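Allow me, if you will, to draw on your knowledge of protein folds for a short while. A protein sequence and the structure tokens that stand for its backbone fold form the material at issue. I would ask you to consider whether the tokens describe a fold that such a sequence might reasonably adopt. Thank you for your consideration; the sequence and its tokens are set out here:
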Amino acid sequence: MRIICSLLLLGLLASCSPISRPALTKKFNGIEKDLKDHTGFILYDLDKKKNVFEYNSAKYFTPASNTKIFTMFASFKILGDSVPALRYVQNGDSLIFWGTGDPSLLYKNVFNNNRVYDFLRNAPVPLYYSSSNFHTSSLGDGWAWDDYNYYYSAERSPFPVYGNIFTVKLEGDSPRIYPPYFRKHYSRGEQKERNQFIREIHSNDFKFHPGLRRSSTREWDIPIRVDKDIIVTLLSDTLKRDVKPVSKLIPQNTKTLYSMPVDSLFRVLMQESDNFIAEQLLLMCADAVSDSLQPEIAIKYVKENFLKDLQDEPSWVDGSGLSRFNLFTPRSVVQMWQKLYEMVPRERLFPLLAIGGKKGTVKNYYKGDPPYLFGKTGSLSNNHCLSGFLITKSGKTLIFSFMSNNFVAPTSSVRNNMQEILKMIHERY
């Protein structure tokens, strides 16, 4: 299979400068036939302000984490430069607060300036927490239900703590659990093929199953089963002071506490493809345009106010791309990158993205000196996508979207074809 693809790509090499549409189409037909997948591709020249090549660019594909491009765009449009952490009212004898969805409090994957922690820890009056503005399910539509035990499927919530995960480190046969609150939920289970920590689906009870085989994995991040009681319990335990739940609708006269620059979230979102941050950003957008933390509100608002000019209306249902209900076309993805490029200065935008050979999910691929690829990957089982900006040796900046769905070949085969094609365009366009 690799020999066939290499021969096709040799032909591509000869036809990329200038791009020969018939030759490129033939190469994509051959690769699609060889991999038995569905492939879409589009290449847009920023200088010429036009598409220079398209292959199935108007077909719909499962975007996986390319959905995060839409989420970042929404967040740039709605949130501004700072992350709203909580909304609060302070009466004479109490401080009542509501979450905005900010994922950063004590989340190890994000820089934390402790502003929210210090604000709550040092409040001079009793603390009361209300979750009355949260109106969505913990897991998204179209998510795989049996992924609940994996870190990439952390639950959505109005006021996350610790990124809605707890961490278990195995030292010998003894687990070290953080935060310590979850020690009481631990027990030991039967032996399995490999070391596993498995949480009960409807509670935070979890078991360690020692493995028959040695495993290099020594650390696990396990999603917390979230409700308002666990939120106030964790806050009380962490702040070393009582936080009590209260059922109170959010009033119009709340004040807002901000936690950090929004770029601190975007960098982890785009480089590490953090699903949890993506989902929480969409909740924050909903909070900003309504009084409800509900992703559908944010999606509807963005589509109606900013995306009516897309050539193909996206089927957009979550922030992260975990849902297989998401469907985008390659040309809509390129249009989204165009919007971001026009809205955000290049010197701010590019460092937030995965950088070929340098940072994020493309650190080991698309290598160049200097880097020539800045973008976002997206992967689910049998689906792999890549889109973003391609800098050519001639100095041009191109936008591309490469989407491959429904393949049964190894993802590495799909990625290798993407890498070779994009590198050739980089060298020859």
Q: What stands out?
A: The longest helix spans residues 411-428. Residues 26 and 140 are 39 Å apart (CA to CA).
